[in-house]
Specification:
This protein is of the alpha/beta class and 169 residues long. The chain has one domain: Leucine Aminopeptidase, subunit E, domain 1. The protein is built from 5 helices and 6 strands; from the N terminus they run E-E-H-H-E-E-H-E-H-E-H. Strand 3 and strand 4 form a beta hairpin. Helix 4 packs across helix 5. Bound molecules: ligand AR6. This is O-acetyl-ADP-ribose deacetylase.
Length: 169
């Protein structure tokens, strides 16, 4: 059984086995959660991301996929980088957003992670409406077959927190 918990705050301050990063396919950093994770986690994360680009993901990590690196100086063992879809008004990309949660949990299982913190993937720069993103996140985690014991959604502001809380209940 996976327990879902909600926290309002900064994902880089969490103590968990794995912190999920809302990355982009370059894996070379960016703004938002991605920038915060690389800033606080230090250069070891970027170094491993560069190595992954060189060895396995020359064309970038595809949208909906996930890959793990060290967590550097964060209070976690791993960072799991996943690439959310940019929200589109004309095309339904929900399955790709669901895939981010599923693939991140699959990678967490491979690593043996038991506690995993997720941000609200795609709801910042990638403009996914918070309520729909929360629905997809909660439904996907609830239906996932995983050995992860705690999935912690870490929401950056009150609105995101309240939206996830409403979806959870
Ligand atoms: N802790 C928790 N949540 C956060 C934090 C934090 N420290 N900082 C921001 N958020 P975004 P995306 C929330 O833009 O939409 C990057 O440049 C934020 O309020 O980080 O998936 C990447 O490199 C929002 O609700 O990710 C990509 O290019 C949520 O995290 C692109 O942005 C996600 O916002 C990915 O865009």
């Amino acid at each position: 059984m996976t327990t879902i918990t909600l926290v309002r705050g900064d994902i880089t301050r969490q103590t968990v086995d794995a912190i999920v990063n809302a990355a982009n396919s370059s894996l070379l950093g960016g703004g938002g959660v991605d920038g915060a994770i690389h800033r606080r986690g230090g250069p070891a994360i970027l170094e491993e991301c560069r190595a992954l680009r060189a060895s396995r993901y020359g064309k970038g990590l595809p949208t909906g996929r996930a890959v793990a690196t060290t967590a550097g100086e964060l209070d976690a063992r791993w960072v799991i980088h996943t690439v959310g879809p940019v929200h589109s008004g004309s095309e339904d990309r929900s399955e790709l957003l669901a895939s981010c949660y599923r693939e991140s949990l699959r990678v967490a299982d491979e690593l043996g992670a038991r506690t995993v913190a997720f941000p609200a993937i795609s709801t910042g720069v990638y403009r996914w409406p918070m309520d729909d993103a929360a629905r997809i996140a909660v439904e996907t985690v609830r239906s996932a077959r995983t050995a992860v014991e705690e999935v912690r959604f870490v929401l950056f502001d009150d609105r995101a927190y309240e939206t996830f809380a409403a979806r959870l209940n």
